[in-house]
Design goal:
three-stranded antiparallel sheet, globular, disordered N terminus, 235 residues, Phosphorylase Kinase, domain 1, 2 domains, Transferase(Phosphotransferase), domain 1, six-stranded antiparallel sheet, alpha+beta
Length: 235
């Protein structure tokens, strides 16, 4: 087993700069943990694939993993044919999901700067995802965005996604979480590309999140905070 600290390749396939363990035609893309799946880049006769599996975990985790990978495979099936979404391949067992490898790096690890075309294409991908009734729900995580060697985007990891074919208003409401994640990533990596409308949307989204948080606090605690504020900050 080899531990690599630099850009690592399996027969010419660049998989980015980070610590990874390689063994023959297999490369671990994610640190193995007891409760999470093993994610590996593998070389097969048809090319390179990404394997996400629970098959080597303890029994309780394997049982839970069956449901989790089934759900993610179901979501990938709903998104079949969308450019920028990994292609779902045949599953070797109930504990495993296999997708076609998308070359490049994720936005958390890359040193490349996404341009305006990248974000325009990324917005198209998100629109297409929503049009299939799927909401990603984890688009605030830069690891779930990829940038390929041509500088084009792709979206990864649909394990937390929801399929909401109806009612439409619910899908639209939850879809706003995806768009807020998209805008936060864009503002962080390319602040010069954020339009005035997008700035207003970010501000509105942050305000709504604050109001939701305040509203979720029990009324007794809110009254206590209000009494302290009146006592110490108002003569």
């Amino acid at each position: 087993m080899v531990l690599c600290m630099q850009s690592l390749q399996i027969k010419g396939i660049d998989v980015g700069r980070r610590k990874r363990h390689s063994q023959g035609d297999r490369l671990d893309l994610k640190k193995s943990r007891i409760y999470s799946p093993d994610v590996r880049l593998k070389q097969v006769s048809s090319g390179h694939v990404v394997e996400k599996t629970y098959k080597d975990k303890i029994l309780p985790i394997r049982i839970i993993g069956v449901g989790l990978v089934w759900w993610e495979a179901f979501i990938y099936g709903k998104l079949e044919g969308i450019t920028g979404i990994p292609t779902l391949l045949d599953r070797p067992d109930p504990y495993t999901i296999v997708t076609r490898f998308m070359a490049g790096e994720n936005l958390r690890e890359t040193t490349r700067k996404p341009d305006s075309l990248y974000f325009d294409r990324l917005a198209e991908i998100i629109n297409n995802i929503h049009s299939r009734g799927v909401v990603h729900l984890d688009l605030r995580n830069r690891r779930n965005y990829g940038i390929d060697p041509q500088g084009m985007p792709y979206v990864l990891d649909f394990g937390a996604s929801l399929y909401i074919p109806w009612p439409r208003f619910l899908r639209k409401m939850l879809g706003k979480l995806d768009w807020m994640g998209f805008l936060k990533i864009k503002a962080k990596l390319a602040p010069g590309l954020i339009s005035n409308d997008e700035k207003r949307a970010l501000l509105k989204g942050s305000l709504l999140s604050y109001l939701w948080l305040v509203d979720s606090i029990p009324s007794t605690i809110r009254r206590f905070i209000r009494s302290l504020r009146l006592r110490f900050f108002h003569p």
